């Protein structure tokens, strides 16, 4: 049998890594972070346990990569769903809805992810995060930004803040209110993206209420 080519080996490594990332998402969703071990993740992925430490320096880094992959895949699917569009405002609306939707669909996973970022380990740079960043930057550019280097980090910070507000134990902010605030910030009509249903908070269809007078 002839040895595998470099490209085949690379594809096998990519698939192995992705199985570990997907298993991490599933298990943390089901059991929580503390109750999920690296051995559990390797078993769910059908991988040798040593592969986890080969690809990732620790469980926290593995989790962040897994969440960034989930965000990237979810955002990518939202941007290319039918009907396809090149409208930058619609694409930005879809991006906002995709990230807020993840917080609603995966609260345990996203809450754990946010807690990890706020700890000493901070923000992990990884291939999954870089792909997510490139997609968000492209969305900002297609929205019409003239200064992507400034506007992309601002959008990222606003989305992270909104996710944190949705997930804050005991005093979560309503999804619709946060969406309204973000849509107002970017001048987006409520009907764009995937509206959560009903009227925008405090307004009529197609209108995002002006909150400036209510801010301190």
Automatic annotation (TrEMBL):
<dbReference type="InterPro" id="IPR023772">
    <property type="entry name" value="DNA-bd_HTH_TetR-type_CS"/>
</dbReference>
<dbReference type="InterPro" id="IPR001647">
    <property type="entry name" value="HTH_TetR"/>
</dbReference>
<feature type="domain" description="HTH tetR-type">
    <location>
        <begin position="14"/>
        <end position="74"/>
    </location>
</feature>
<dbReference type="InterPro" id="IPR009057">
    <property type="entry name" value="Homeodomain-like_sf"/>
</dbReference>
<feature type="DNA-binding region" description="H-T-H motif">
    <location>
        <begin position="37"/>
        <end position="56"/>
    </location>
</feature>
<dbReference type="Pfam" id="PF00440">
    <property type="entry name" value="TetR_N"/>
</dbReference>
<keyword id="KW-0238">DNA-binding</keyword>
<protein>
    <submittedName>
        <fullName>Helix-turn-helix domain-containing protein</fullName>
    </submittedName>
</protein>
<dbReference type="InterPro" id="IPR050109">
    <property type="entry name" value="HTH-type_TetR-like_transc_reg"/>
</dbReference>
């Amino acid at each position: 049998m002839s040895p595998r080519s470099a490209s085949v080996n690379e594809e096998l490594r990519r698939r192995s890594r992705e199985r570990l990332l997907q298993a991490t998402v599933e298990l943390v969703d089901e059991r929580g972070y503390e109750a999920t071990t690296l051995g559990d993740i390797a078993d769910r992925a059908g991988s040798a346990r040593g592969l986890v430490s080969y690809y990732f320096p620790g469980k926290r880094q593995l989790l962040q990569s897994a969440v960034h992959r989930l965000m990237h895949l979810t955002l990518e699917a939202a941007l290319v769903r039918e009907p396809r569009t090149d409208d930058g405002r619609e694409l930005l609306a879809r991006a906002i809805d995709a990230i807020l939707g993840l917080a609603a669909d995966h609260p345990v996973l996203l809450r754990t992810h946010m807690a990890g970022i706020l700890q000493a380990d901070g923000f992990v740079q990884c291939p999954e995060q870089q792909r997510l960043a490139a997609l968000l930057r492209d969305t900002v550019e297609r929205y019409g930004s003239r200064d992507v280097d400034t506007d992309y980090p601002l959008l990222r910070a606003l989305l992270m803040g909104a996710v944190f507000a949705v997930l804050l134990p005991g005093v979560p902010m309503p999804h619709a209110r946060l969406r309204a605030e973000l849509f107002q910030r970017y001048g987006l009509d409520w009907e764009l993206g995937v509206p959560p249903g009903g009227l925008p908070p405090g307004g009529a269809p197609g209108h995002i209420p002006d909150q400036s007078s209510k801010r301190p």
